UniProtKB/TrEMBL annotation:
It comes from the Bacteria. InterPro entries: Ald_DH/histidinol_DH, Ald_DH_C, Ald_DH_CS_CYS, Ald_DH_N, Aldehyde_DH_dom, ALDH_GabD1-like, GABD/Sad-like. PROSITE patterns: ALDEHYDE_DEHYDR_CYS. GO terms for molecular function: aldehyde dehydrogenase [NAD(P)+] activity; succinate-semialdehyde dehydrogenase (NAD+) activity. PANTHER family: SUCCINATE SEMIALDEHYDE DEHYDROGENASE [NAD(P)+] SAD (PTHR43217:SF1). This is NADP-dependent succinic semialdehyde dehydrogenase. Transmembrane segments: none annotated. The lineage of its organism: Bacteria, Bacillati, Actinomycetota, Actinomycetes, Kitasatosporales. It comes from Streptomyces chromofuscus. Keywords: NADP, Oxidoreductase. Residues 3-457 form the Aldehyde dehydrogenase domain. Belongs to the aldehyde dehydrogenase family.
Length: 461
């Protein structure tokens, strides 16, 4: 795949970049290693000052960088601005909280005494250069949620971004440099996917984090396992959105529309499978379908647009194949289901019902504004349908019954359960999944500690 900005609204290639050669990659690896040796000795106050400055610069750049995001991957510009604001918020959160999150821990006095020590501390130390392999769907946020905690922990970052968002990738490197971070603290590597394996095998790279497809995650995990290096993987999801009889159906249907089509439906934590109790199924299906039909599909640069184009022609073709397979094997289309005429990689908000286990869309992640509706006879069946997936990133539950909540929290196979609201990441809460959605956690204290050497310091009498 060429490293290029191709506008998904019209298919126009705007700018193409040459991949970095062996010499340039080596220079940057040397720089990362050398910078880490000094940067790791900096204090939390100095790191926080730099990260806060980066947040300020991002706020100043918000309008311009939002247009870059929209041009490169097609998200509505209003959502692009919100993404930039969210990144600045996360940077400030880590600048304020990192020292507390990584403070030395003191075991219980009884355990210290039992070990024969005069004192024991658990200390968090940085690992070194961390390779981040990041996707195009949230081209700022996916990077910042790695970079902010990694930099505050004293690590340095090497970014291999998706090949269709090179301008965003270069902007991020420039942002940290302008904020005052040393050149080697955060570097963008303009490289193809084939080069990732070679870099991950380099002994100077100490760990890796990847957000992306399951095949990409398998490849990185395989190499990292061979090299005995720490990894964090977030590999997508097919999140359930469960509606029970006690729910506010009108509100649930309204939120469901946003939960499905956020980022043009290209979000790992977007609700994708809508599992509705039979007592409220018809009412929910009617309101949800009406809401999906009413969305404005169009130019992502227009302020009124709610759904823009998919990020790539291949992505739209993959989505069409899932829908076509479902309709050929018995699914009913309640709205959408056919690409509109004209330029760009647009696909309309679509609702399918009559889904069976044999259909590909039941098993695979639909990465676009396509929702599947399931009817559940009771809570037990809702749990069975929800867990009948290879993925387990997050989940959404709508009910006013606390007994329902307790059961879903206990039995849903997911990294998150959001009750009477849609899944959304926040810097203070851990983010990640189970099953084929990956392992490890980003954000919160759990995220910042993923790339730390957790060191036991035992001091004798």
């Amino acid at each position: 795949m060429p490293i290029a900005t191709v506008n998904p609204a019209n298919g126009e290639t705007i700018k193409t970049y040459e991949a970095m050669g062996t010499e340039e990659i080596e220079r940057r690896l040397q720089l990362a290693e050398a910078t880490f040796r000094t940067y790791r000795e900096s204090g939390f106050a100095d790191r926080a000052r730099l990260l806060n400055r980066a947040a300020d610069l991002l706020d100043e750049d918000r309008q311009d960088i939002a247009r870059v995001l929209t041009t490169e991957m097609g998200k509505p510009v209003t959502q692009a601005r919100a993404e930039a604001a969210k990144c600045a918020k996360a940077m400030r959160w880590y600048a304020e909280n990192a020292e507390r999150l990584l403070a030395d821990e003191q075991p219980a006095d009884s355990d210290v005494k039992d070990s024969g020590a005069s004192w024991v501390r658990v200390r968090y130390r940085p690992l070194g250069p961390v390779l981040a392999v990041m996707p195009w769907n949230f081209p700022l946020w996916q990077v910042i949620r790695f970079a902010a905690p990694a930099l505050m922990a004293g690590n340095v970052g090497l970014l291999k971004h998706a090949s269709n968002v090179p301008q965003t990738a270069l902007y991020l490197e420039d942002l940290f440099h302008r904020a005052g971070f040393a050149e080697g603290c955060f570097q963008t590597l303009l490289i193809g996917s084939a080069t990732v394996d070679e870099i991950l095998r380099d002994e100077r790279v100490k760990a890796a984090t990847l957000t992306g497809s399951e095949p990409a995650g398998r490849a990185v995990a395989s190499t990292a396992g061979e090299m005995v290096k720490k990894t964090v993987l977030e590999l997508g999801g097919s999140d359930p959105f469960i509606v029970m009889p006690s729910a506010d159906v009108e509100q649930a249907a309204r939120v469901a529309v946003t939960a499905r089509v956020q980022n043009n439906g290209q979000s790992c934590i977007a609700a994708k499978r809508f599992i509705v109790h039979t007592d409220v199924y018809d009412a929910f299906a009617e309101r949800f379908t009406e809401g999906m039909k009413a969305l404005k599909l169009g130019d992502p640069m227009a302020e009124e647009t709610e759904v823009g184009p998919l990020a790539s022609e291949r992505g739209r073709a993959d989505l069409e194949e899932l829908v076509d397979d479902a309709t050929r094997t018995g699914a009913t289309v309640l709205c959408g289901g056919r690409r509109p005429a004209g330029d760009g990689w647009y696909y309309p908000p679509t609702v399918l019902t009559g889904i069976t286990r044999e259909m590909r869309i039941h098993r695979e992640e639909a990465f676009g504004p396509v929702a599947t509706l399931y009817r559940a006879g009771d809570l037990d069946e809702a749990v069975l349908i929800a867990n009948d997936s290879l993925f387990g990133l997050s989940s959404n539950v709508w009910t006013r019954e606390e007994a329902d909540v307790d059961r879903f929290v206990r039995d849903l196979e997911a990294g998150g359960v959001y009750v009477n609201g849609m899944t959304a990441s926040h810097p203070a809460f851990p983010f990640g999944g189970v099953k084929r959605s990956g392992y490890g956690r980003e954000l919160s204290g759990h995220g910042i500690r993923e790339f730390c050497n957790i060191t036991t310091v035992w001091h004798g009498a």
